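User: Mind token order:
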Amino acid sequence: MLQKYLRLTGLGLVSLVITLSLSFYFGVNAQPPKTITFVSYAVTQSAYSKIIPQFTADWKKKTGQNVEFRQSYAGSGSQTKAIINGLEADVAALALAGDTKKLEKAGLIEPGWEDRAPNDAIVTKSVVAFVTRDKGVKPTKWSDLADEKVKVITANPKTSGGAQWNFLGLWGSVALNGGTEAQAKAFVKKVYDNIPVAELPKDAREASDVFYKRGRGNVLLNYENEAILAKKKGSKVPYYVPTDYNISIDNPIAVVDKNVDKHGTRAIAEAFVKYTFTPQAQQEFAKVGFRSVNPQVAKEFTSEYPEVKKLVTVKDFGGWGNIQTRFFADKAIFDQIASGTFGR
């Protein structure tokens, strides 16, 4: 009887030791939850609201670690300034590489960020679309926007990356299409002279509100992806994508090196950036109207995107450094054109 009791006691002790050992092992090796601060421009929210939960589930499955995302969406220019001024983003997905370059210049992102992600860190693409309201206004070409009947709504390129793309599209439709700089300036000024608001909206989302909710203007310059998403949600408002000429709107994503090293989140942030290029994530971008950078996904959505005959890029304007200095710096071309033009 005593021997049987000792055997049972011994088994119980062995089980207890195993349980304690396993508890100690998993307790030591289990990774504590982490929080990632993700900052992006306004119109990406529909896509990232699907992509982020997919990534966190994938990361949990692979590592056992829970990750929470703090998310911020606003105009790309405003977000860039906020990050420079102390918003501690771990990952920044901005509307243009020029804004990401500003973070690099501020010492927040290490040089060479374009080479540390797939596709030179360009995670989505789009083009400019003309959204209309009046039946009698059907702009199919950029030159149509100079018609006095056309009242364009666009955001402020000082605070909105989308508005910078719009401005470059307007300028390039003349200057990169056989026209002179003087002709381009006159054309763009004519378009801005007809803008029917006293103050330009801060970002693409606010510009959409001015157009749709406040009923101002009759042509909204917008991302093609926004127009497609609105249509999928039931909008009957027509839009036109100029296909004779357009600009490739290339949107980058990058790890904010200084912040991830401070927060201890580099591994997760880098994994998230890479995840945005996976077919699963690119499918989500394509579903809400972005032109996918994944060739296979792009083929699946070909019917949604009209082919543009002449598609220019930032390189055709001399790169973002030249663009910022020439067009959007204080007293540069945009300021010269915009001075005293709005609200007429």
Q: What stands out?
A: The first helix runs from residue 2 to 29. The chain has two domains: 34-123+251-304, 128-247+313-338.
